Amino acid sequence: MLWLIHFTGVIPYLPYSRQSKLRNRGCITAKLLASMMTKAGLSHILTVDLHHKEIQGFFDIPVDNLRATAFIMQYIKENVPNFHNAVIVARHPGVTYRASSYAERLRLRIAVIHGQKEIEHDDDVGDGRNSPPPFIEQEPEEPTAQAAPTGAKRLRSDSTLKFKPSLYCVGDVNGRIAIIVDDVIDEVDELIAAAECLKDNGAYKIYAAATHGVLSKDAPELIDQSPIDEVLITNTVPTSEQEKRCKKIKSIDISILLAEAVRRIYNGESMSYLFRNTPMEQ
Fold this sequence. Notes:
Shape: globular
Number of helices: 8
Radius of gyration: 23 Å
Strand order of the largest sheet: 6-5-4-7-8-9-10
Structural class: alpha/beta
């Protein structure tokens, strides 16, 4: 008798989920990871808030991408004083869709941080990390009868190079609570720069909320010294050590969501309910 054995991988935070695009003619790391998991024998993946939903297409097996936003929103309603005076802030234009979802369900306004933090570059570093090089104006040469070699390329002018202004806030946050939302908080330099921008624009209290709190390197110490009042994350990644190093970090337990999903998969029940309603009290 042939026995069919199914292995379900419960991976609350899927690693390398941000490496989902082709860069520098290398491999797509998220696709490579998906292939490795499938070849290892997994027949089902259970995860939470993928960085890009399209990553599910990298797998040849079913993927259930659960949502933790209901837990974060309930925490905001119950623990943020006067949250009706808050503004949901997208840390950069790429997460505006996520901020809009929060704002619509909490019935709040939205703001967007645009631009980039000014970075001091070391002139001694010549490894190409700041490519393309700045365009250098050259004196026009006298035309000659000799034709240009076939396949010759012309350098781009400054008008074709992308330019991002310094950080500024699109939307009114003056005298309001600012809640910055994202899916992952890892290195916090850009997050803190956004918080400082909001502070300069009149926000009197600043929260940061995300599903996954990786908080690598010295992120807890930087958060502790920043104008951010509280960082809300879920326990998809263990953060007990980071919470000891920074009292501003608050972890929200979503184990009940994963437990219910495992139970439904084991019993062959429908998973659609978990995508419609995931209150913390159930």
